[in-house]
Amino acid sequence: MTTTTRTSPRRRHRTLARSTVLTALCAFALGAAADDCDTARGELMFGLCQSCHQADRAEHDRSGPHLVGLFGRPAGSAEGFRYSPAMADADVTWTAETLDAFLASPRQFMPGTTMMMAPMRNDADRAALICWLRDVAGTAEENDQ
Ligand code: HEC
Questions:
Q1: Which of 13, 42, 69, 76 could form a disulfide with 140 if both were Cys (CB 3.0 to 4.6 A apart)?
Q2: In a domain, 2, yes or no
Q3: Could you tell me the pTM of the whole model?
Q4: C-alpha–C-alpha distance, residues 78 and 49, integer Å
């Protein structure tokens, strides 16, 4: 029996490569919103942030701005906090993706930021932290801001 549609091997390869990328992207997008956070690890990782940030009381900044309602919040917008010009003028909205890039390398993602934090190089540590923080800090709407 002969097949009626014949795909050249090159074309098939490209299609396969593309669907692999798509699958990976979907997994990332879903992973960020899914319930299967490694919460213990996420909370532990927030220990790196806690001296400067808290995420459950909007009225309270430490040496860093509060992170309540962070997801969907424009960078540099916590009322009353004195940001660096870099953060205040940044055209960035905090999402799982932008946060991931920022935490992986704060000063590379945002040259001029005054957040003195070493890059978090471990992908799984960042993912756990972001997933945990998404639950704790929530979005501006969820926090009725
Ligand atoms: C040594 C203190 C310090 C530590 C530790 C620290 N931050 Fe920050 N963070 C800051 C400061 C200060 C700013 C404001 C930076 C600016 O204006 O450029 C900031 C800004 C931010 C912002 C932007 C908030 C906004 O309102 O736009 C996010 C998000 C953030 N930090 C998350 C984190 C997370 C998550 C951690 C832990 C992994 C962390 N930070 C660790 C001091 C810190």
A1: 69
A2: no
A3: 0.80
A4: 17
